[in-house]
Amino acid sequence: MRQRIKKRPMSEINVVPYIDVMLVLLIIFMVTAPLLSQGVKVDLPQAPSSPLPPNEKEPVIVNVDKDGNYFINYGEDQDKPVAADVLLNRVSALLKYQPGIPVLVGGDTNVAYGHVVQVMTLLQKAGVPSVGMITDPPEN
Question: Residue 101: which domain range?
Answer without folding.
Answer: 60-133
